[in-house]
Design a protein that fits this description.
The chain is an alpha/beta fold. It has a single domain, classed as P-loop containing nucleotide triphosphate hydrolases (Rossmann fold), CATH 3.40.50. Helices cover 50% and strands 18% of the residues. It has nine helices and eight strands. A five-stranded parallel sheet has the order 2-6-1-7-8, with helices on both faces. A three-stranded antiparallel sheet has the order 3-4-5. A hairpin with a 2-residue loop joins β3 and β4. α2 crosses α3 and α7 packs across α8. The N and C termini lie close together (10 Å).
């Protein structure tokens, strides 16, 4: 069984996918984390998001693998667990630049499809239902307003002791949406057979329950 959850940044895809996969006993695959790992390497090497050649060179040097430790996905970059660094704002922005590189997408696509071919999976990202797993038995397009998504991210950063600017966060989210939706390679869009869920005024549990109720018998 393959469940594909697509949607824009901050829609709650990862949180929901983790709950759904745990409830069902499926493997959770966070494809965005794979791109973030390459983005993280680029940042560490002071690569500009506009330098396509440098991004390609870094991607060739990046060995991205996934391991499941106590049923939790951990992302390894060149043998080092970088999972805890992947939610940083700068890494997310760099990941959007990395994700438009065909060579990067192809290398990660093989890994993503291999995992899905061997397990029951819940996979989230930008193009799972349209490109990665077009044959998924259930496709969800999960979204929320930019204001709601900015508030969620604002609260998340405040809990970490940071002092974020919610207007800057929303501006960054809108810009990431634009880039993700207009990129030439695998743009963010709702698959024709995906079910739209707007989580703006739903609780996490309500969204998870909704998705589980939609799984074909």
């Amino acid at each position: 069984m393959k469940i594909a959850i697509d949607g824009p940044a901050g829609a709650g895809k990862s949180t929901i996918a983790k709950i759904v996969s745990k409830t069902l006993g499926y493997i959770y695959v966070d494809t965005g984390a794979m791109f973030r790992a390459i983005g993280y390497q680029c940042i560490n090497n002071n690569v500009s998001p506009d330098d396509i050649k440098a991004i390609e060179d870094n991607a060739k040097q990046a060995d991205v693998t996934i391991k499941y430790i106590n049923d939790i996905q951990r992302v390894f970059l060149n043998g080092i667990d970088v999972t805890d660094h992947l939610r940083e704002e700068a890494v997310g922005n760099m990941a959007s630049a990395v994700a438009v590189i065909p060579a990067v997408r192809e290398s990660l696509l093989d890994l993503q499809r291999k995992i899905a071919s061997e397990n029951n999976v819940v996979m989230d990202g930008r193009d799972i239902g349209t490109c990665v797993l077009p044959d998924a038995e259930l496709k969800i397009y999960l979204t929320a307003s930019s204001k709601v998504r900015a508030k969620r991210r604002f609260d998340e950063l405040k809990e970490k002791g940071e002092s974020p600017d919610i207007d800057v966060i929303e501006k960054d989210i809108i810009e990431r949406d634009r880039k993700d939706m207009t990129r030439d390679i695998a743009p963010l869009k709702q698959a024709e057979d995906a079910i739209l869920i707007d989580s703006s005024y739903m609780t996490i549990d309500e969204v998870a329950d909704k998705i589980i109720s939609l799984i074909p018998s």
